[in-house]
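Suppose you are handed a protein chain with no further information: no name, no annotation, nothing but its sequence. What can you learn? This example shows the usual starting point.
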Amino acid sequence: MKIANPKSQRPNPKHRAPNPKHRPPKLLGFGIWVLGFGICITSLLAQGQPAPAPAPPAADAPSGPAIDISGYWTPTMNEDGMERGGGSELHDYGGFALNEAGRLWALSYDPSRVTLRHHQCDAYVTPYQMRATGNFRAWEERDPHNQRLVAIHWWAQVTEGHRVIWMDGRPHPPAWAPHTFRGFSTGKFVGTALVVSTTHLKQGWLRRNGTPESDQATVTEFFVRHGDHLTNTTVVTDPVFLTEPMVRSNDYYRAPVDHGTWLYACYDSEQIVGRAPEVVPHYDFGKQPYAREYAERHMLPLGVAWTGAASMYPEYAATAKTMTDAQGVALLSPAPGRPHETSTAIDPEPKDGEVHVLPIRNNVYMLVGDGGNIVVQTGDQGAFVVDTGTGKLSEKVIAAINTLSERPIQFTANTSFLPDRTGGNAKLGAAGMDPSLPGSFFVNSAPRAVTGLFADPLRHATLLAHNNVTTRMQDAKIPEDAIPGDTYLEERRRKSHNDDSIELFYEPNAVTDGDSIVVFRRADVIVAGDILDLTRYPMIDPKNGGSIQGEIKALNDILDRTNYEHEGEGGTYVVPGHGFLADEHEVVEYRDMVVIVRDRVKAMVDAGATLAQVRAARLTADYDTRYGANTGPWTTDMFVDAVYNSLKAATPASRAGR
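A reasonable first move is to predict its three-dimensional structure. Written in structure tokens, the prediction is:
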């Protein structure tokens, strides 16, 4: 069992860049730097990976930085004035190595999506933040005892982006740690350059016109200073949306005094009154109303800016001249006759046979390693456990809980009856006890007569779930000691435990007909179970009561209970059934995906399409490199089939459109 260091779990704020608009004082020195920089960046790009985290400094290492970027900085806007000011034109993706998924994601993007409440205050991801308008400030953080450099802080006025670049050799967090808009950054000095490696970014954009960056992107940066000019070069590697790393530079000049403007207030509200919560603005494949606008305005062939990496190279000019309108139209939709792409995301679940503990907040923890995320709350009462994993590592799960709680497991709640939620029920139940039952009606008057499922409470934890979980498990002939005996039927079950208010809310007909979300109100943590699965499309099971409409409603119910701490992130933590610890941003991006796919399938169903035709249309093409699979227990086709069958079976009243 391994417990993560809480200090290494918090990805931190921002970076900012330099400005080569003024001639450096020594051209010879600048030329040598360019040569060295070229060798350095070529080596890193060849590796296809961000720079490794630096090793701890030797005992006699100097604490002074090779360069000092402290001070006030203002971006030079004449380099990319339109992009960094008013914003890029819609459908201009030239010079970006977008793959098919990235191109289709961008073409489907409707800018009015930012009117949705949960998108209104989205901050900028680091590569875009470095190109933003507004002022920047950098300062050092040093150890108060030995004055060694611990971190470089970078503050961006726009979105109040506080970024921390750790310089003390600490490792990057594990794959299951939360992501932030700034990511987690570590730096080291290479010659006179500061080289920064950033991981754990949220999904965002490379351009505001919808050019996407996934939550799997990593960034390597180079900061170089010449007098009062700073140049920042960002190298983005994104296996989900890019075929090649994206390289851009940003320039800044040093301001002699404090700008005095550092805040960027944002509060969300209803911008379009009466809009249904399941509406997500987007454009269907091949039906983008403004697709020709950019090409016609600049008298270019349609699609000339949609060809991905080819548009990055000089020889593309000749190719672009011969591009036909039919070729451009074809790029508006997925290529026909191809199999689904598969996920290129890092598997966030450890496969080392160990159970790892991630502190969330207060006395709530996330345990990973047993085939599904487990949540444990501790306190002066017994441990409260949500979900029990597959059961393959139950002994190690119990050992991990025992390191967190001096008291045995008292309650275990299941978010559904699926094996990754209930596999460890029997062993975790047998390892616990419920001291609240002896002397009560359940034991003294009717020890097992009420439900037939209450084992000896002094030798067994109480298992809680929605009643449909118990029914489904009984129908499946699951051993009695693994079946929840304390159930509820409608709306919610609530309990005060370990100085917190815990509520189970029923989410009917989401993934199954027995799904619950569990809310720790004081800790501000929501356990979503398989309603939120950041490793694949939702496993909607119509045969066991699941439905696409119920899944969307469940995701929106989670969003109704979340709050962000600052600029669209932090605040309420949401534990997915699988994947890294999330907040509302991951929930809303997942909700958007499910709604968009639902709408595409529904449009074809309404037009009379067969399941084979829906499958062939590749309606998930812009999301497959993040969530897709062609083999295993849950494939892209299985998800599409579930959506199709769910919509076909739905009544007109439950099939609300956009």
